[in-house]
């Protein structure tokens, strides 16, 4: 029997970032991954939102140095790019980088921080009680944990066995995908009857995407090279040799969202919680976003320091985000399929307008995430990485979150007595008009102090996001009890 605090099923982007976040917070974490080796690379981009989040732990810089920057966000169904230059982000670009490389970096960090990653371990069954979860893997070994998180992909065993519904719409099409070598130029190659083959550059090979004329009833039927070859030749009306296949598969446009992200001691993150059309190349990014939201909340819950209801805010915040992602990826597909329709025309006009272009870029990348609408423009949003001066040293806001703990950044020098209820960092800033700002560990703003308003509302925010507020700072009837 193997004992741990949190058992994670699945070592994809969601499972690995979650493991790193939990380990950073000192939570005993074990990841069981079915596969012995990392599979062939599926995704190839980190968007601005992911880079902003990873920067809060010092993880973005190395990836940015390795990847290829593109100044726009991927989108389907619009004729031009969505520019990121004016978007609300510290990283106004998409980063071309293999998903497998991102996973390697996250895995190394998780292991360095003390997480255990067991490959070749497939979770088969589990039961949960009020005290914990008992899981069994393929060889009969059992794992006892306080919480189980299903990061085990779209066909999640954890989701199915928990009985969590996965409502949504079935796929209507399953294009063929082949990572191969061939002489086709990058971009769209049209055939004589208007059908097309899409050719996307990849390191040392190309990714071919083509609609299948006669797809099998079971979309998981293996795709042999001669099937892809025949379809490409049929669409182009000529033979173009495909060589050296690395990966041959089908993908679909199904859109489904788990009805609950938490059931007792079992949680879901990443593709286990949502699947959607590939529009906007968002999958890895949403998986990271879920994990980043869940990690600190689950860690505080395991440590017994979490405020009441903190763990449930994971469902509240990320299920709502999942709904928006399903809606906007489906909308992109609808635009692509209906490009002569009035709605597509309207959206093209919106995208051609600088403000509309920016709004669409922020929606599609998730940069518009706001968990607490209203009040100061920073409230509920990821605080921008503004330059700061702390202890006479030039630094920046994201650097204050490296430890993964909540922080009260004190711009006015009048919040020192909130320590040790929350870590207070006195900082000078020439860009912020606030007296102080309470940052959750994920960098989202839990409270923003307007100048002249003292600490009104701060006790509630600390109570809600950090934990118990000492009596000396507790608010009673709008005033402070001292
Ligand atoms: C063709 C294609 C192209 C894509 N391109 C992009 C892109 O450009 N950008 C982008 O952001 N996203 C892209 N995606 C989506 C992206 O790959 C996924 O959304 C992302 O990998 C989801 O991460 P995850 O951690 O939730 O799940 P996964 O990466 O699927 O990881 C789940 C893991 O769980 C393991 N597992 C499953 N069952 C068990 C079990 N019972 N026990 C133990 N382990 C288990 C699996 O082996 C797997 O390693 C693409 C997807 C496809 C199919």
From TrEMBL:
Residue span(s) of domain FAD-binding: 3-328
SUPFAM superfamilies given in the database record: FAD/NAD(P)-binding domain
Superkingdom of the organism of origin: Bacteria
Cofactor(s) of this protein: FAD
Gene Ontology molecular function: FAD binding; oxidoreductase activity, acting on paired donors, with incorporation or reduction of molecular oxygen, NAD(P)H as one donor, and incorporation of one atom of oxygen
UniProt keyword terms in alphabetical order: FAD, Flavoprotein, Monooxygenase, Oxidoreductase
Pfam families the record matches: FAD_binding_3 (PF01494), Rng_hyd_C (PF21274)
Protein name: FAD-dependent monooxygenase
Organism: Amycolatopsis iheyensis
């Amino acid at each position: 029997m193997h004992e741990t605090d949190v058992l994670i099923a699945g070592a994809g982007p969601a499972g690995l970032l979650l493991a790193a976040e939990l380990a950073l917070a000192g939570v005993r974490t074990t990841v069981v991954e079915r596969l012995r080796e990392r599979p062939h690379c599926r995704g190839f981009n980190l968007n601005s939102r992911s880079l902003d989040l990873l920067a809060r732990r010092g993880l973005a810089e190395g990836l940015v140095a390795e990847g290829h920057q593109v100044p726009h966000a991927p989108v389907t169904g619009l004729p031009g790019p969505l520019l990121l230059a004016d978007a609300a982000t510290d990283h106004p670009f998409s980063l071309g980088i293999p998903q497998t490389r991102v996973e390697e970096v996250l895995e190394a960090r998780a292991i360095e921080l003390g997480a255990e990653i067991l490959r070749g371990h497939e979770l088969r069954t589990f039961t949960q009680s009020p005290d914990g979860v008992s899981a069994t893997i393929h060889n009969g070994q059992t794992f006892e944990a306080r919480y189980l998180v299903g990061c085990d992909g779209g066909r999640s065993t954890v989701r199915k066995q928990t009985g969590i519904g996965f409502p949504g719409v079935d796929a209507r099409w399953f294009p063929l995908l082949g990572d191969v070598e061939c002489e086709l130029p990058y971009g769209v190659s049209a055939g004589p009857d208007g059908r097309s083959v899409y050719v996307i550059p990849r390191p040392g090979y190309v990714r071919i995407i083509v609609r299948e004329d006669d797809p099998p009833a079971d979309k998981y039927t293996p795709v042999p090279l001669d099937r892809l070859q025949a379809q490409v030749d049929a669409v182009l009306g000529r033979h173009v040799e495909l060589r050296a296949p690395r990966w041959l598969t089908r993908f679909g446009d199904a859109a489904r969202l788990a009805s609950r992200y938490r059931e007792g001691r079992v949680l879901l993150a990443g593709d286990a919680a949502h699947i959607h059309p590939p529009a906007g190349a968002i999958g890895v990014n949403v998986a990271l976003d879920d994990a980043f939201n869940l990690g600190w909340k689950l860690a505080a819950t395991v440590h017994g320091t979490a405020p009441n209801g903190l763990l449930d805010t994971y469902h509240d915040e990320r299920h709502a985000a999942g709904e928006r992602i399903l809606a906007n990826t489906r909308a992109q597909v609808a635009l692509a399929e209906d490009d002569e329709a009035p709605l597509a025309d309207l959206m093209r006009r919106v995208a051609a307008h600088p403000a509309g272009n920016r709004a669409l870029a922020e929606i599609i990348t998730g940069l518009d995430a706001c968990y607490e609408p209203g009040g100061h423009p920073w409230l509920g949003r990821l605080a921008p990485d503004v330059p700061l001066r702390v202890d006479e040293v030039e630094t920046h806001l994201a650097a204050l979150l490296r430890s993964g703990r909540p922080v009260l950044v004190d711009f006015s020098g009048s919040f020192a007595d909130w320590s040790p209820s929350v870590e207070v960092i006195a900082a000078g800033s020439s860009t912020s008009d606030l007296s102080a700002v309470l940052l959750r560990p994920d960098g989202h703003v839990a409270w923003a102090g307007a100048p002249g308003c003292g600490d009104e509302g701060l006790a509630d925010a600390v109570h809600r996001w950090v934990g118990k507020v000492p009596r000396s700072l507790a608010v009673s009837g709008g005033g402070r009890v001292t």
